[in-house]
Amino acid sequence: MATAAEYGLGPNTFPRGWFIVAESKELDAGPMAVRFWGRDLALYRGESGKPVLLDAYCAHMGTHLTASTSAMIVKNGEQIEGDSIRCPYHGWRYNEHGDVDDIPYHDGPCPKSASIRSYPVVDNMGCVMAWFDPDGREPDYDAPFLKEWDDPQWVNWELDHLGVLKIHSQEILDNMADCRHLGPTHGAPSEYFENEIKDQVYVQRQGGPMQLYGTYLYTTTWYTGPGILLSKQVWGDTVVYELIANTPVDDGETQCWHGCLYKGSAAEATAEDKAAAKEIQAGALEAFGADFNVWAHKRPALKIMQMKTDGPFRTGRKWYSQFFATPEDAAAIRAEVNGTHPTQGLISPAEAKHSIDEGLPI
């Protein structure tokens, strides 16, 4: 396990961006105690249906707002009031902005110094996505969304929860440039390959025969910020969007999720389509699992021994570094890396007549 500083990332330890912090349906069971970005957090759904993410600890006596299961206020279902939450120890109430707005045994004004941090959150494509900026700035781009999610022809994913991997997210992001692992690791050697960078968006276009599917696979894959990957994949008559999400837990540890959005055969997805979608997601997870297994058994690649016919690792790492940098430095990084980045020895998507990008949000 290596840290951000060891990869030369900084000055911040954790990147800014949109990240998955839970599957939406997990909140149906009640508030959750979660940990991301080196901090304990309280996640719950307010009575309006809005998810709320706060720093975990009540300023009064340091009680975790959502870790208690034994307090009577929790057992009685009285902890959530509107979009606010009461501390299970003394009942101090925090609103969705992280401010104390009621103390049951106090008639005066609530102390402003008791406020805790609140994080921008959206309920999006079956996921709870939160914006994290170590310096507390507001979002500077929107959380990614696929319009197909709301189309009844498409079968929505139910997330695979892959747990915490003791590896820095940098190693996961390296896959975007890594055309040469696709044959040995996945049985899907690229016949064409190219990267494109547009500010916070990092795109990979590639295609080649895939052993697992027994056919030719075309993919356009993109990160929107450092934590959420979406990939349009086409083979035969099959069209799928794959989701791979990584969220830093602590410095050098990453929690991962996976899912597939599958295009059904009719205007409204049938039972057969839903069964096929489960098989497709299982197959995609098997393919992703090959990466996961490699990451779990490798030492950190703090410096890549770059071959001229490798993909553009250094450019990809430079792109990733913007999310750890100051806004001024991030702008300079974007100016440096924006554009198209071919890989020596492989033809371009244009030469291969790659044509699956129509309607993509990139």
From TrEMBL:
Molecular-function annotations in GO: 2 iron, 2 sulfur cluster binding; metal ion binding; oxidoreductase activity
Residue ranges of every copy of the Rieske domain listed in the record: 18-130
Cofactor(s) needed for function: Fe cation
Keyword terms, alphabetized: 2Fe-2S, Iron, Iron-sulfur, Metal-binding, Oxidoreductase
PROSITE patterns: RIESKE
Keyword Oxidoreductase appears in the UniProt entry: yes
Biological process annotations from GO: cholesterol metabolic process
InterPro entries in the cross-refs: Cholesterol_7-desaturase, KshA-like_C, Rieske_2Fe-2S, Rieske_2Fe-2S_sf
UniProt superkingdom: Bacteria
GO cellular component, one term: cytoplasm
Protein name, as recorded: Rieske (2Fe-2S) protein
